[in-house]
Amino acid sequence: xxxxxxxxxxxxxxxxxxxxxxxxxxxxxxxxxxxxxxxxxxxxxxxxxxxxxxxxxxxxxxxxxxxxxxxxxxxxxxxxxxxxxxxxxxxxxxxxxxxxxxxxxxxxxxx
Length: 111
Prior knowledge:
Layout: H1 3-10, H2 13-24, H3 31-42, H4 46-68, H5 70-73, H6 78-88
Helix pairs in contact: 1-2, 1-3, 2-4, 3-4, 3-6
């Protein structure tokens, strides 16, 4: 899936061109990864998308932290973040992939 397809999944047709232009403005480190993170975090909100692009320009690692470690960053529940990546048709970042649940007694032991 490419970025244009992902934009089309979450933005109405009337905002797609502006969303593509805004997201294309980010030209920093890990560009593709950060752009997808911005789309996932924006959730189809144009104003939020622009704010996230500005945040990425200041420090792209903040955007990656909010998107890929949502529970730690308190940006949103982990399941919601994963659902947003899925809604974009993009692969989940490794930190959001399903991880095995372990019992309270430790790794691999029933709880």
